[in-house]
Specification:
Blueprint: E1 4-7, E2 10-13, E3 18-24, H1 26-31, E4 33-39, E5 46-51, E6 58-60, E7 68-73, E8 78-83, E9 92-99, H2 102-107, E10 111-112, E11 116-121
Parallel strand pairs: 2-11
Antiparallel strand pairs: 1-3, 3-8, 4-5, 4-9, 5-6, 7-8, 9-10, 9-11
Length: 122
């Protein structure tokens, strides 16, 4: 069964940094674009950032570019989300996702992880 497993969430103070990891099965990682969504309490799930299958193209939500960086490491079947200058508004459950291409990733991913909690305190 194809699985995506997130890790690295936790509690940080505003202005701090955190790196999330998403470990994927070989089939999922090699054949799909990868990315991250988040869902804050009381809000809809939103797209954060995605990266193409080759790793050459990255897509960011407008206000997050410059603070969040996505990368993928094929040798470990892992995609990362490096978050800096964190704000309380970034508090959410962060989900790893995979889709056939970058456009599909933003609207209806094929696979989801179970999520990892990120909490940013004032």
């Amino acid at each position: 069964q194809v699985q995506l497993v997130e890790s690295g969430g936790g509690l940080v103070q505003a202005g701090g940094s955190l790196r999330l990891s998403c470990a994927a099965s070989e089939r999922t990682f090699s054949g799909y674009a990868m990315g991250w969504f988040r869902q804050a309490p009381g809000k809809e799930r939103e797209f954060v950032v995605g990266i193409s299958r080759s790793g050459s193209i990255r897509y960011y939500a407008g206000s997050l570019k410059g603070r969040f960086t996505i990368s993928r490491e094929p040798a470990k079947n892992t995609v990362y989300l490096q978050m800096t200058s964190l704000k309380p508004e970034d508090t959410a459950v962060y989900y790893c996702a995979a889709a056939e291409d970058s456009n599909q990733l933003q609207i209806d991913p094929d696979y989801w992880g179970q999520g990892t909690q990120v909490t940013v305190s004032s």
